[in-house]
Each structure stands twice: as structure tokens, then as C-alpha cells.
Design brief:
CATH architecture: 3-Layer(aba) Sandwich
Helix content: 25-40%
Number of helices: 10
Strand order of the largest sheet: 6-7-8-3-9-10
CATH topology: Rossmann fold
Strand content: 15-25%
CATH class: Alpha Beta
Radius of gyration: 18 Å
CATH superfamily: P-loop containing nucleotide triphosphate hydrolases
Number of strands: 10
Order of helices and strands: EEEHEEHEHHHHEHEHEEHH
Distance between the termini: 33 Å
């Protein structure tokens, strides 16, 4: 099984500001690992450094033993690291199916113009029809993507990553902006993707009930540094985590 992500002593600085310092962990295939922490903790910087948006200032990122530190985002994507984003991203005047086809075509090009020219040529990845069914949007395949309700657009964003057949997924706040029933639907979808495809998922999320109910392990960072890592139960009762993030009156049932 491919898709083991290893982070070793990872650091990222912006001038004199250390946004990440000495972050280390391993994500195994089939594991859901949550990343939590207060706003400004460095969670999105971590994702940007893993996915190639930023180059590490220290340490290394490896996938299945290969050092991928400093590669471009398209190179990292083709090696098997997919990503979803906090906000919804759909192409104007395209259907749900066309949106997934364009996302799949991203695997074959880096420059925006080359990517647009590649549209229409099938790239390696999961079948668009299969992904449409997996994410529950098969009945909306011919609808204009921008006309979908916000919750469905968030689900479509997951499909855009999944259609590229990733070995692991970075998911940045998939439940942000969703109501309670939509959060349950997205939680079930994420768990189903893990179970069906056997891929590891690195999850940044502020909804603690979702994190504690979904993740196998949870890593807590604050001010760019690791506070703790462990099972949801261990994290729930860790005094350092309570002081740094959860608070004394937290309730995560």
C-alpha cells in the first residue's frame, strides 16, 4: 500500500517569524489524522508546505520514503497528494461533470495555459462517473456547478481531489460553513472514502465533535509548535491541550 507521509523536523519561516518549528509525524495509509489548534497556529502553513506552495525552511517532507521537499504543487499532486480547500472553488459556466473532468486534467499540466489546453484529454485518475456516485452528486452531474448549494459545492471540492486518484488527501476545514446535517453527511463521506480507497487523510478542522468522532489520531499545534499527539481520548484529557486550546469547560461528546 502506497501513501505513507512522513514529516521530519519541518519548519517554515517568513522573515523572522517562525510559522512552523520542528513539526514531526507520520500518516499511514488508511489513517485519518486530525490537525487542530487555535487560529494562527500554523495549520494552513503546514498544508501549504506539504503540498509545495511553500518550501520548507527546515526539515523534510517524504512520501513513501521519497523526499518531496520543495517540489512544485503539480509535481506533488502527480505523486499522489490531493488537497481540498476551506473555500469552495468551481469553474464558471461548467457542469458538475465538467468540473471533475477539469480537475482530473490538472494532473497533466502545470502552467495554467497548458492546463487549459489539456482539458478534454483524459488524464490518469479515478473514473469521473465513479467519483460522482461516491460523493452522491451523480444526479446533479449536468447541473451548473456554481448553482449548487454551498454544502454540495464543498462536497464537489472533495470530488475534485478524489478524481485525481490520490494516495492521500489533505483536507482543509471540510465542514466550515456547513450546518449540522451537512456536517454529518461530510463526516460519513470522509469515512467512506477512507474505507473504500484505503487512503490516509490529514484533516484540519475546528469542529471538535467531528474531529474526535472521525480521527484515529489527533495532533495539536500552537504557535507553530507541537503541543501533543495521540488518540482522541488522550487528546481530550491532555492538560497541555486543554490549556493551549480546548479550555477547561470543553465538551467533546
Amino acid at each position: 500500500m502506497t501513501g505513507t507521509l512522513e514529516i521530519r523536523g519541518l519548519g517554515r519561516s517568513f522573515g523572522g517569524l517562525k510559522a512552523l518549528e520542528d513539526i514531526s509525524f507520520t500518516l499511514e495509509p488508511g489513517e485519518i489524522l486530525g490537525i487542530i489548534g487555535p487560529n494562527g497556529a500554523g495549520k494552513t502553513t503546514l498544508f501549504n508546505t506539504i503540498s509545495g506552495v511553500y518550501k520548507p525552511s527546515a526539515g523534510a517532507v517524504s512520501l513513501d520514503g521519497r523526499d518531496i521537499s520543495g517540489l512544485r504543487p503539480d509535481q506533488i499532486g502527480r505523486l499522489g497528494i490531493g488537497r481540498t480547500f476551506q473555500s469552495t472553488t468551481v469553474f464558471p459556466e461548467t457542469t458538475v461533470r465538467e468540473t471533475l473532468e477539469r480537475a482530473q486534467s490538472f494532473l497533466s499540466a502545470y502552467s495554467p495555459m497548458a492546463w487549459l489546453r489539456s482539458f478534454g484529454h483524459r488524464a490518469a485518475g479515478h473514473s469521473v462517473d465513479r467519483v460522482l456516485e461516491r460523493i452522491g452528486l451523480d444526479r446533479m452531474a449536468d447541473a451548473e456547478a456554481s448553482s449548487l448549494a454551498y454544502g454540495f459545492q464543498k462536497i464537489l471540492g472533495i470530488g475534485m481531489a478524489l478524481v485525481q486518484a490520490p494516495h492521500l488527501l489533505l483536507m482543509d476545514e471540510p465542514a466550515a460553513g456547513l450546518n449540522s446535517s451537512e456536517k454529518i453527511e461530510v463526516t460519513d463521506l470522509i469515512r467512506g472514502i477512507r474505507d473504500e480507497y484505503g487512503i490516509g487523510i490529514l484533516l484540519v478542522e475546528h469542529d471538535m465533535k467531528m474531529v474526535m468522532g472521525l480521527c484515529d489520531r489527533v495532533k495539536v499545534i500552537s504557535y507553530g509548535r507541537q503541543v501533543a499527539i495521540g488518540t482522541p481520548e488522550e487528546i481530550r484529557n491532555d492538560p497541555d491541550v486543554i490549556d493551549a486550546y480546548l479550555g477547561r469547560d470543553h465538551e467533546l461528546a
